[in-house]
Specification:
With about 220 residues, this protein is α/β, with parallel strands linked by helices. It has a single domain (about 1-215), classed as Glycerol-3-phosphate (1)-acyltransferase (3-Layer(aba) Sandwich). Helices cover about 45% and strands about 20% of the residues. It contains seven helices and nine strands, in the order H-E-H-E-H-E-H-E-H-E-H-E-E-E-E-H. The strands form two sheets. Strands 1-9-6-2-5-3-4 form a seven-stranded mixed sheet, sandwiched between helices. Helix 4 (about 80-90) links the parallel strand 3 (about 75) and strand 4. The longest helix has 25 residues, at about 1-25. It is globular.
Length: about 220
């Protein structure tokens, strides 16, 4: 029991510490938001928005999601040790979390995420997490958007200087004082699904929009 409590405490402390470090580090960036007004207007009018991006660019998402704290944003994060830390990080930034993934507690996590998005109006989703393959959109985003009757906003990040981790997604960490642009693509309104082919077509369309913006060194 003591070891378990220590593990939980360490994760909570680590997550909060990481969030503070990310905020301090990212304060050196020169950040530009592109095409932000389009989907913010939807939120202000009472609509729902699901921002979708690659796992590779999640570091920047921690920074920009806290920008929208007044909308009570939500995100789904896997049930793993890394996910525990990630949860603490985004929660410290005012983001609500549904725990689960396609392999762990998938359907329950999707339902929780849909319910949270219905209430808050703003959610974010990592398209190819938690384990890839990189650049392949999984089914969660389409299911969440339909369930919550939300627009999808594809998003990607560019940085003029960055490091890339030796991980499955080549995780991107911008270098100090990098110029960052968060690009929000045009809103996608998903038409009603008539069959499985429609679902796959919508998934593939989202993948085709964002795949060219998967940043590789």
């Amino acid at each position: 029991m003591f070891k378990k409590l220590r593990k939980i405490a360490t994760t909570r402390i680590a997550g909060t510490f990481l969030y503070v470090m990310i905020r301090l580090y990212s304060a050196t960036f020169r950040v530009k938001m592109e095409n932000e007004a389009e989907w913010v207007e939807t939120l202000e009018k009472g609509g729902r928005v699901l921002i979708c991006l690659w796992h590779q660019q999640f570091f920047i998402a921690v920074r920009f999601l806290s920008r929208y704290k007044k909308y009570n944003p939500c995100v789904m994060i896997s049930r793993s040790l890394d996910g525990d830390i990630g949860t603490r990080v985004v929660e410290a930034g005012g983001v609500s979390v549904a725990r689960g993934s396609s392999s762990r507690r998938g359907s329950a996590a999707l339902k929780e995420m849909i319910d949270m998005l219905k209430k808050s109006g703003l959610g974010a989703h990592i398209l190819d997490g938690p384990r890839g393959p990189a650049g392949v959109v999984k089914t969660g985003a389409i299911a969440i958007a339909h369930g919550a009757e939300a627009l999808i906003v594809p998003a990607f990040v560019t940085a003029d200087r960055a490091w890339y981790a030796r991980s499955w997604d080549r995780f991107l960490i911008p270098k100090p004082f990098a110029r960052i642009t968060v690009h929000f693509c045009s809103n996608i309104t998903l038409p009603p699904l008539k069959n499985k082919d429609d679902f796959e077509a919508q998934r593939k369309n989202l993948e085709n929009i964002l795949r060219p913006h998967l940043i590789l060194p």
